[in-house]
């Protein structure tokens, strides 16, 4: 199907007619003629790969300041066959919240960002456009012994992140962000505002981890906050391969998922230049958050991971909110940096993910290190995120996110670069690494994480997305839960109004 500029004009006209009855749209509407169009578009772009001259741009950006402005937008988009892209924090790793090959407009929820924390009930309502850093900050403003288990990057948006699961340093103790959602408000394809009760348990299940876009527009989440101690302990110990990194990483695979659930030790793999002789090496940094005091941590580490040689002087006690800065490798200082809604240096970026179910041999680890000596790996990074703990206790079908017991850890592969012309080289580097890893990670299917969106693993057909086509990527993200997601989608959005390259299709979809 195609849409003419005629459809676009009709869409705009429909909105202006609607605004007579509702509220004025003039201040929340940006077409390319508007001088703020580019700055509004770029404000939430986190990946320069989708901000090039050839990247398709929206016909209009709409930035509602209240929920009632969204209903007429849906009505007019449906009437005129306009494709909607919903954006909260804009971190979609394939840019799907702000680009599309079909003519489209962006519904940008950047202004819907209220956060209300209820300390007595240990809950918070957060609107979709608020960022995780803002959430952590607002919680800490009211309590230093409450937290929330979501992502480590403070500019990530609540709307997309929680829709796809969402994890951070508290994953082993409390699971995913989506595991801790107790209510939500969404707008469905008919423009109805629904909460948990009125949407029903199936749709409420689907929106907590089934990925953004497919089921409607999430307006806000109600979160169950979690207890954190007044003082947590952090440390980072870095070892190069010359300092036994290979053996220590190898050992880590056998134990990190079994640690006390108060302890999460991630591993960052990067290439470094030695400060002594300037020679290149591979470094593994073991970065940890422990929900307790250094006195309790030291014997635990001594007993379970003596190979790391943790000393008291490696450890720092701080509040949980300070640890959110530390874990994101920001200086631990004034907390208001958590309120920054944009990142300083936006890169060209490609990310992929894997789940590891059996420890990888030292030889294979050395094969990874070898690839990190290639030119393209200068700013590449692997992160190993330990599972176990709470993740083992939650059933595979509790929410759509299925990667629970049986997974030792998750691997995030990231490659960053600075020049558009070089993109193909870097993409090819990360794809080669990903194929090298195929025999050593989860199989049948090779699992992936919907929030680390990767269009390489499959996309919907243009024009006519079949269940079979969508299941190529869908089973990787959701395993058997994919079928239930399709069932819910068929019920709530049979005409597939809410769609993108990896949205859940309804059965018998025309699109
Ligand atoms: P964005 O607005 O791009 O939305 C993502 C998807 O959800 C899009 O398809 C969009 O259309 C849809 N969507 C957005 N708002 C919606 C709404 N209100 N209703 C319905 N659909 C909506 N993940 C993680 O688990 N832990 C982490 O620590 C990190 N860290 C991280 C760092 C950086 C720098 C990046 C770029 C990404 C991450 N992520 C992550 C991945 C992140 O969780 C993922 O990209 C989220 O989907 C981003 O949500 P945003 O709202 O920011 O994105």
Tell me about this structure.
By secondary structure, the chain is an alpha+beta fold. The chain is built from 16 helices and 18 strands. The protein has helices at 5-21, 37-43, 70-79, 132-142, 158-163, 171-174, 196-199, 201-207, 245-255, 294-304, 320-327, 362-372, 390-393, 423-437, 467-478, 481-492, and strands spanning 29-30, 61-62, 83-87, 104-108, 115-118, 123-127, 146-147, 181-187, 193-194, 217-224, 226-227, 232-240, 263-273, 280-290, 316-318, 348-356, 381-386, 409-417. The strands form 4 sheets. A 7-stranded antiparallel sheet has the order 15-12-14-13-17-18-16. The protein starts with a helix and ends in a 19-residue tail after the last helix. 48% of the residues are buried. The mean pLDDT is 95. Residues 46, 85-93, 96-97, 109, 128, 151-153, 156-157, 159-161, 163-164, 166-168, 212-213, 217-218, 451, 500 line the site of dihydroflavine-adenine dinucleotide (FDA).
Give a short summary of the structure.
With 511 residues, the chain is an alpha+beta fold. The protein has 16 helices and 18 strands.
- SS content category: alpha+beta
Q: Mean pLDDT, as a whole number?
A: 95
Pick out the low-confidence regions: none
Strand proportion, as a percent range, falls in 15-25%
Within the largest sheet, what's the order of strands? 15-12-14-13-17-18-16
